[in-house]
Amino acid sequence: MELKGKKILQMGLGILGGGVATARFLVEHGADLTVTDMKDETALKLSLDKFNDLKGKIKFVLGKHREIDFLQNDIIVINPDVPVGNKFVKLAREAGKQIENELTLFYKFCPSKKIVAVTGTRGKTTTVNWIGHILKSQNTNTLMLGNSPEKPLLQEIKNCNENTNVVIEAPSFLLEICDHSKFAPHIAVITNIYQDHINRHKTMEEYARVKSNIFKHQNENDFLILNKNNEWTQFFLNQKIKSKVLFFSEENLMENENEFIKHWGEHNLQNFRIAYLVAHNLGISSKEINEQISSLPQIKFRQEKIFDNGKLQIYNDTTATSPDALMAAMERFLLDREKVVFISGGTDRELDFKQWAEITKKLIKPENLILLSGSATEKMKNLLGLDNFNEFGSLEECFKKALEIVEKEEKAKIIFSPGAKSFEKFKNEFDRGEQFNLLVNQL
User: What sign for the dihedral angle of Cα 76, 78, 83, 88?
Assistant: First the structure.
């Protein structure tokens, strides 16, 4: 794919770093680049300041999108936050324009074809990091990408050569256009499918269809790893799969599986089984894989223990942005006999909390559930059907109440697991997690 001299429109710059990395990549490859964003110069100042060395090399159309830009450019590169149903993207498609995003560009320009891509509703980030951890033990030239704003895909491409192991977290927003772009990782993983992103994809079937783009262009030399126990797996198997299909092993992969579950939780056993299967199919022996178990990294903001004084443990699970993720935390921590207090709630994204409510009624006393106000919280309260709640408007009030509840306990845990997004009070779930950590440090 040639970019030099091509007229390219980048739709969406954003402020998290991915848009800046994409723009710089395009300019470095000789593109005649225009960047358009609905936000204005003031809102995008942090990103715009990073182009001071490229003055005059990028045209900006800010505070609006113009139809003419989508018709006069050869290639349209869209930000992950832009849905394929956007009217300007539709206009470009109808005009026969080539549509790309940072994932499809990375795939086309990456010198290594040893690419593992992981998608699914839950477990992506932990699985990516654990695959990378095992691969790194045999090849230090291993990159884990796609799950950190600090390491945008196109910024890291310069660190790849033909021998690099590349493990990519591929969310549905990046997979939306992959049916047209020939994206084909050597190993594709779908961890599971649960209800999520319905506000973007509209139906569960459409959400699953987008996920299936991860394997659409694989060939018989590639691998697809699926979750045998997930209800959507048959949906994938009904499609024309050319790659070799493997399922998570149900067999013991280690001597002390129960100890692993006690330390990491049942859901993380599934994540490890995926990592094992990937590593094994890339030539790493069972013995070498099992030697890495004791040093598996704890992933930030994913049921992460952030405080432990022997009496009180506090866990930050801010990336639990769906009821299924919250239920995974409940499944892990409510097995304990000591006092466990949950802080939950946030922004609704048209997700179904009925199953969560049924489990909560059985397992959590109302006084041990603290809710942070928000549109999802209203739905949660209605389903629980109680008159009184520990509900507060700020995270600080929620945490202070949690401390008050556990104050006299000999052993207790506080679990911050929202089960919802955070748009009403925070920039994103990572900002929310950082603010929770600050509160713990202060109080």
Answer: negative
DSSP string, 128-169: HHHHHHHHHTT-S-EEEESS-TTS-HHHHGGG--TT-EEEEE
- Cα–Cα distance between 357 and 323 in angstroms, integer? 9
**Which residues, in sequence order, are CB contacts of 337 under 8 Å at separation 6+?**
none
Which pair of tokens denotes residue 73?
A: 């450019």
Let me know: does 35 contact 60? Beta carbons within 8 Å.
Answer: yes
Structure tokens at 205: 């079937």
Overall pTM surpassing 0.70 (yes/no)? yes
Confirm if 369 and 390 have CB atoms less than 8 A apart: yes
CA nearest to 315, candidates 258, 399, 381: 399
Domains and CATH numbers, the chain: 7-100 (3.40.50.720), 104-295 (3.40.1190.10), 304-442 (3.90.190.20)
* Residue 118 parent element (H or E): strand 115-119
Mean pLDDT by runs of 10 across the 443 residues of the chain is 95 92 97 97 95 94 98 96 93 96 96 96 94 97 87 94 97 89 94 81 90 96 95 95 90 78 88 95 95 94 95 96 93 86 94 95 95 95 91 97 95 97 89 97 93
